[in-house]
Amino acid sequence: MGFLAPLMLVGVAALLVPIAIHLIGRQRARVVKFAALDFLMATKRRTARKFRLRERLLLLVRAIACAAIAIALAKPYTSCETKGPQVTRGPQAVVLVLDDSFASSYVVDGKPWIRRAGEEARRILTQLGPEAEVAIIRAAEGADHPTELTRDHIRLRDQLLALEPAARPADTTRALSRAAQLLASSSHARKTVYLIGLVARTGIRDEQVWGEDGPRLVVVDARPASMPNVAVTNLRVDPESGIGTRGVAFDAEIANFDDAATSVEATLQIADKVVARGRVDLAARQRKSKRFVATLPPNVRSTDASVSISGDSLAIDDRRFVRASLRDKVRVLLVDGDPRTVRREDELFYLEAALRPGDRDDSGTQVRSITAEELAGIEPGAKGKPGAIDLAEFDVVVLANVPALSAERVAVLAAWVQSGGGILVAPGDRVDPAAYDRTMLPLLPQSLRDPIDTTWGATPDERDSRALHLVKWEADHPIFTPFPPSAPDLADARFYKIVLLGPTTNTSERKVLARFTNGAAALVEASIGTGKTLLFTSTLDRDWNDLPIHRGFLPLVQQSARHLARKHSALGVADHLVGSSVALPTGDLQKLEVRGPDNLGAAYEGDRIAGRSSIRFNRTDRPGLYRVIGSDQTGATLERDELAFVVNVDPRGSDLAPAPASMLPTSGTGGGTAPESTERRVELWHALAAALLLLLLAEGILVQR
After folding, report:
1. At 426, which helix (H) or strand (E)?
2. What residues does each domain of the chain span?
3. Residues 669, 672, 675, 680, CA torsion sign
4. How many CA atoms lie within 13 A of 133 on its CB side?
5. With bands split at pLDDT 50, 70 and 90, how would you rate the model's confidence at 91?
6. Cβ-contact 469, 514 below 8 angstroms
């Protein structure tokens, strides 16, 4: 123990004053013998003993009070080990970085960890004092960050009280970078960043945040000693023909992020009904797959499903959602404009292989191939007529390098498209643009012009360098949704010869979906009545390009066929994560509404949907099922099961392993020297002053008695 004003201890001598007064005030009475008073004196002696006890207590209280006054003025203090970070009071710039990722909902001692972090942040805010300029930055991925520091500590305290875990993983590096930017704009010499979080390794990226002259970094370690966690990190669904046409198989990946072995129970739910359970034993840091086989409920083609595990301290990653759908068959009629006896040289060789890879029955496409001459037999309602082709049996017709058809055949095809069919036209050496302009325009989004060969006159070494490439495709269009933004499977394809298109003023029903590097249109879409037509300006085989040997060819033609047939693949196949943007095809809808797990969402109508092939929904803030409700041209409003999708948490955030100190930014000087003491001073004079008041109260009571 020490004293801030030790000279004041001289005042302790004042305790002699009440002692002296007590001794001086004592008077010795002269003893006079009087027999009649012997009986009374015996009673007085008993009363005198009580008086002596009270006087001695009063003397003791007054002496201690005098000493307490002197000791309190000397300001005694003691020291103890600091609990929490060393906080310096006074003018300074401070940023509190708090981890509000979904990992902060981890339950510790009956309450979420974020509550403990909030309490620590409020304690630091109180110790900083009113002169400090402070900002609070949330470390969840995609969180909104403040634009300035403030001295409004009451508002900051309200923010801390209202802090709730997000459903996204931590992006601690981004939060620290923003903290450094805020502090750099401050004129204060002393700058500090308090990092209050789990500081998980998955939230730290290897990049420079600030240099040695940056702010001082104080990591507040409030995490428990052990944070075991088990999560469902992946879930996919595939057809399972072994148990019937409605059979599906669910493959769930379950991961143990702890250093100890554990066992969990996995449960499969379809449409909120439990259909299967199974035990999964996991070694330390092990991932294991669990398969469930089930059948979809009757009278539905798609429904939501989930796999969950027995609850642990972090509940949000214990369940993963998926859409289970029965695939609609797309019936495609392929018209071969250049049939060959050598199979690999045939116009349809690569196209058929892409629509039915490996000739599998579960490809989702039913294909029939005919020659251009057989098109003479197409008739509406010709089912059962020998040699006739009934277009009502098909969803899509592909004209691959087919010479110009007669006006009568074009009229039949155009009527079929107007009633809801879809047609894909691709040119080739047998296509005459002038002949197409005369008869084929009712099936085309735009007229054709003569082809150009970009490699004409080039040497073999120059051929590839002069080839064209696909660029500027509509990433939100249903045809291109399976591809990532860069899409090397498409961008790397080389096009040596393409057909140019003629001028047009009709832009309301026509849209260019992709272009080549020279600006020419590569894929054009247009609406014809209630149907659609696509024009691809190069061949569907390898005569004019090498696209068919690239991996992007298969999803491109499959998505094109499904788009023309208006039978889009189930969006649940893609693993949408919380915070991601989801492209929803509009088709013929006049209004589209999305509702999330909390029944909140967004509606798109009028200018927000008119003339657009798809819209993007960005409010995916919570994991679960997102339903889509659409209104068509007739005004009928129905739930669109084929457009419903699910959103899951990012499995990266389930790994709670702490980041080593070497991964964190180096703590700068912060404009001054960091406090080295790990002890905290506790002043005792406040307690002495309170004790003095109690002593004075006791003295008054004794005097009154």
Report:
1. strand 422-426
2. 2-81+684-704, 93-226+656-676, 248-327, 330-564, 572-648
3. negative
4. 18
5. very high
6. no
Q: Calculate the CA 182 to chain-centre distance.
A: 25
Assigned token pair, 341:
């006896």
Q: CATH classification of 93-226+656-676 is 3.40.50.410, yes or no?
A: yes
For 114-181, the DSSP string reads HHHHHHHHHHHHHHH-TT-EEEEEE-BTT----SS-B--HHHHHHHHHT----SS-B-HHHHHHHHHH
What pLDDT, in 10s, does the model give residues 577-613? 999 988 888 877 889 999 999 888 889 988 888 878 7
Statement: residue 667 has pLDDT above 70: yes
Question: For residue 122, what pLDDT band results from cuts at 50, 70 and 90?
Answer: very high
CA distance readout (Å), 632 to 164, 510, 640: 39, 20, 11
Confidence label for 481 from pLDDT (cuts 50, 70 and 90): confident
The CB density around residue 202, as the number of other CB atoms within 10 Å, is: 20
What is the pLDDT at residue 404? Answer: 93
Residues of the chain above pLDDT 90, percent? 48
The CATH architecture that domain 572-648 belongs to is Sandwich (2.60)
pLDDT of amino acid 392:
85
Q: Please, which residues bridge with residue 630 across strands?
A: 592, 638
DSSP 656-703: -PBPPGGGSPPP--TTSPPP---EEEEE-HHHHHHHHHHHHHHHHHHH
Amino acid at 215: P
pLDDT in the model for residue 573: 47
Assign domain 248-327 to a CATH class. mainly beta
* CATH code of the domain occupying 330-564: 3.40.50.880
Considering only CA atoms, give the Rg of the chain. 41
Distance of alpha carbon 605 from its chain centroid, rounded? 27
Q: Which helix (H) or strand (E) holds 350?
A: helix 349-355
